[in-house]
Amino acid sequence: FIIILIIAATVSIIVSTIPGFKYQSFVETFEIAVIIIFTVEYLLRMWCSPNRIKTAFSFLGIIDFLSIFPFYFVLLFPHVMVDLRIMRILRVLRMFRVLKLARYIEALNVIAFVIREKMHQLIVFLFMIAVILLIVSSLIYYIEPENFNSIPEAFWWSIVTLTTVGYGDMVPKTPFGKLVAGIIMLVGVGIIAIPTGIISSGLTQYFMEKKGGRTCPECKTAVEPDANYCKSCGRKL
Predict the structure, then answer these.
(1) Which of 63, 146, 149, 157 is the most buried (most CB within 10 A)?
(2) d(Cα 207, Cα 215) in Å, to the nearest integer?
(3) 96-114, pLDDT tens digit by residue?
């Protein structure tokens, strides 16, 4: 029921932004009903929790709170809504309720578990990416200062180029600048696959352990239950 309610509430927010939508009053009534149900669920979850503070400040606890917070903020402080920036932020916060699905869908919990387990490798990867982007953006800025006004601006260009998106809003003009751009494009094709490999490795390890498999104590690679040696590092098991 909660999963269906979350999906329906998210869809109602989306369709309510369509210009000329005829059922705005129904969406508003439905939104109030959803808030009441989510509020009751949140309060009962806090009441039943053996550690209410820990539950309230957990990831899912914060998501549960953000899913109902905008409604009560508007109710208590209607005069603040004249500020369009605050109003837009509160409207965006309503979409956080879709993250409540993580509590009820096992597949999302598995992915979250794998990301937590592989967080060290992912942080190392992000640090490596940051270093590469910093070097490339500094390099392209000093090569073509007439096309890139600052290193932060060049940093944006480096991100767009490394991910091979290529908006074309900033383009190197000199031969050396194009050479740098070509190198970072080629590097980007391979480097973006690294987090995919990390997470897929973690998923493989998770399901192997769930099926009674083992992991190598040396390199943590998932191995078959009857394996005598690790297929990655060759350690005797």
Answers:
(1) 157
(2) 11
(3) 888 888 777 777 778 888 8
The Cα–Cα gap between 13 and 94 comes to 8
| Whether 121 contacts 202, CB under 8 Å | no
Q: What's the rounded Cα separation, in Å, for the pair 60 and 191?
A: 32
Contact by Cβ (8 Å): 35, 68: yes
Q: Strand ranges (DSSP E) for the chain? A: 214-215, 222-223
Closest CA to 65 of 35, 88, 91: 35
Query: What phi, psi does 226 have (nearest 5°)?
Result: -100, 10
Model confidence at 40, pLDDT cuts 50, 70, 90, reads very high
- Which pair of tokens denotes residue 184? 């970072």
| Counts of helices then strands in the chain (DSSP H, E) | 10, 2
| CA atoms within 13 Å, Cβ hemisphere of 191 | 20
Is a pLDDT exceeding 80 seen at residue 196? yes
